């Protein structure tokens, strides 16, 4: 979206914000990133009921503006659906009284977005399924490495370590406390592994860090397996994760259950898919095993 278009959108939403908080269901999308907008589209199609939609355009100012409007309203939405990290952050900071349903929010654990009225779809797929698909695509892999921030993905890493042990796969997980630790940690990790597992961890993965990780792994011919389709498209040979359309559909079903008071559990782990990036595989001169090629979905 152009700067002029963003200015127009912000001005328009400023005028209609008071009406938004009267809606039964409000959909808040973190930005106009295609991944988020496709989730939103899938949600609306699956949910099948009227919703009011607000796009934060990736701007903290828009997040605060909407958050303060919701916090100051005597009658907020019955359900606030947050797509992405910025909208999840806004929900945590300003919407303590709202029912919240989040997705594509890898910061939910770090933000402690939890409570009796908070629901969500887990950012990471099933740990055992991730390990199963690693072995399917890379049957000769023996030592898998990853870097993580415990405040974001500590629980996920613990589950992965347990699943890897059952599969006779060694998982070397290196914790960091800040992104500036990545270069030294990666230098230490790479000689010990034959595969890098890139989690959707906002404490590790950013527009600056994932190219650095990819280039260092590529130079040493260490392939990358991702748990996010968005990351996979940029640097992974293969990955096990959600497609945005699928995630939107599951989000719509979950919202319908909540509104009908049929929601069971607080955070759902939904089925994911194996994706194969043939372009990156070609850069590594890697040929997918026949079974992986037949079960996986190729992406561009």
Index terms:
300 residues; alpha/beta; Rossmann fold; seven-stranded mixed sheet
Task: Give a structural overview.
With about 300 residues, the protein is α/β, with parallel strands linked by helices. It folds into two domains: about 140 residues, Rossmann fold, CATH 3.40.50.2300; about 120 residues, Rossmann fold, CATH 3.40.50.2300. About 45% of the residues lie in helices and about 20% in strands. The chain contains twelve helices and 13 strands. The strands form two sheets. The chain has a seven-stranded mixed beta sheet, sandwiched between helices. Strand 8, helix 8 and strand 9 form a beta-alpha-beta unit. It is globular and about 60 Å long. The protein starts with a helix and ends with a strand. About 5% of the residues have low confidence.
Question: Layout of helices and strands, plus pairs?
Answer:
Layout: H1 3-20, E1 25-29, H2 34-47, E2 52-55, H3 60-71, E3 79-83, H4 85-94, E4 99-103, E5 118-121, H5 127-137, E6 143-148, H6 150-166, E7 170-175, H7 182-189, E8 195-198, H8 209-219, E9 224-226, H9 229-235, E10 238-241, H10 244-259, E11 267-268, E12 273-277, H11 278-284, H12 290-295, E13 297-299
Parallel strand pairs: 1-2, 1-3, 3-4, 4-5, 5-11, 6-7, 6-8, 8-9, 9-10, 12-13
Antiparallel strand pairs: 10-12
Helix pairs in contact: 2-10, 3-4, 5-6, 7-8
Kindly report the name of the CATH homologous superfamily of the largest domain.
Response regulator
Termini separation: 23 Å
Tally of separate domains: 2
Question: Would you tell me which CATH topology of the largest domain applies?
Answer: Rossmann fold
| Category by helix and strand content | alpha/beta
Q: Sheet with the most strands?
A: 7 strands, mixed
CATH architecture of the largest domain: 3-Layer(aba) Sandwich
Determine the fraction of residues in helical runs and give it as a percent range: 40-55%
- Shape estimate: globular
Percentage of residues in strands = 15-25%
**Tally of strands:** 13
| Rg (CA only) | 20 Å
Helix tally equals: 12
Q: What's the CATH first level of the largest domain?
A: Alpha Beta
Q: Give, in order, the helices and strands.
A: HEHEHEHEEHEHEHEHEHEHEEHHE
Overall mean confidence score, pLDDT: 90
Poorly predicted regions are: 7-12, 15-22
Strand order of the largest sheet: 7-6-8-9-10-12-13
